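Chain X:
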Amino acid sequence: MKSSRLVSTLRYVALVLLAGLFLMPFYVLLRNAFSTQLGITAPQWHWIPDSLNGDNIKELFNNRNVPIARSLANSATVSIIQTFGTVAISAMAGYGLARIENRLSRVILGMTVLTLMVPAAVTFIPSFVMVSSLGWISTLRGLIIPGLFSAFATFLFRQYFLGFPKELEEAAYIDGAGYWRTFWRVVMPNTYGICAAIGTIIFIGSWNAFLWPLLIGQDRSYRTIQVALSQFMTSQRIDMPQLFVGAAVAILPVVLVFIFLQRYLVQGVERSGID
């Protein structure tokens, strides 16, 4: 009995230590976000920040050279549209690949999986040339449209729909519904979990994207939050308080989305059959 209590106690202690290690970077982020440049670079470590009056936040949003509010709005616009657009397009593609079985669908599935193995850097330059030739540099179209199709999301949806009960669809077919009507009236209302899971993954990836928005958002008014934060690092100086407080503001939407949708994220990955 005593040994089992000792084992349980050791497990809790180990979990608390691991949780502390996991949360340490977030503490450092918040600590530096409310510290002065001198406080961050001081040789002596201080656990309590020396600028808790909110001046760093005021300075961040009043900075005319780095419009954080506009960058947050751009990131929100791009992430939300890409999330809903990618989920809709990938769900339709995944459903078609799961239910329409012929030689062409197998070829398309093979090509879709093949694109997962191609490094993103290989298609980066051709994508940029295409977007540039269309005149979409420094536009929201250039930031959003190239990211609307995801082979990864399509493959996840296809795996999920393979296990979706066909009896529900067959009942719709008997009533005269086709693929399109069955998909939107019967299938999609029963796939909120996988949609939320993939939507969470897409949103986080879109919000944290850096290289593509850096190339496309050349005008200051079209920069996303990740690109805007990089403006605090120059070859002459790193504005650490602004960089850290900006990072703290930037992760808030991602943390909120993850907190509200984390159970769907786990359920969706489990149901899709991906380990």
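Chain Y:
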Amino acid sequence: MKKLASTGSNLLPGAFIVLLVVLWEVFIKISGIPKYLLPAPSGIIRALIDSRDVLLLHTKTTVIEASIGYIISIIIAVSVSASMNRWQSVKRTLYPVLVISQTVPIIVLAPLIMIWLGFGMLPKIAIVVLTCFFPIAVSVTEGLETVDEDIISMMKVMGANSWQIFAKVKLPAIMPSFFSGLKIAATYSIMGAVIAEWIGAQSGLGVYMTRAMHSFHTEALFADILIIVLLSIGVFEFINFMGRKIMPWNK
């Protein structure tokens, strides 16, 4: 019965989305709104199929930029968080700077990064790193703060070294917070790559989006947005799946 109720609750959002799409299609057919203003879902799917080869090339570029930037941001964020947890002076110095840095929108920094690093793949990766770094760093830092000090003291009394305390106590304790940050950053990685491509690039979903917008090819623009949404959901669900596999106790 519980499984049936769970299946029903999972189907409910999908059924609601299908209903919205059907209403959207009917509304366009009845109202006669030009497709350059608001295309019908059937036109978007048609544009997606017609431009699949071009969209695949642009999607590949965006995924590569987002993946590399995401992995680099994880390495830097975990290193910085571990340093702040190990040395309080580092935390007192860096943490306020990290918080203040988030008050500057990435769309403002992106043109500067383009000027400094050029128009190749490097500035796109840098923007993805900047976008993904903060949620991971904050999640890991907050997770490390919640580790029970009594358990750490007991481990020290038992003769455990720093590595053993980290592996046996701190790492399991921060995993839920770590994966929460990873899920947020995963969706940000796609957004960061698209913003970077929008500012200036030769390939990527952001580039395709600007070209579709300038030519009033709204169906292609919506097809591009649909791919971005599916990519974001895909990476989110992948990280969610990995979290369940690595932390079966956290279900």
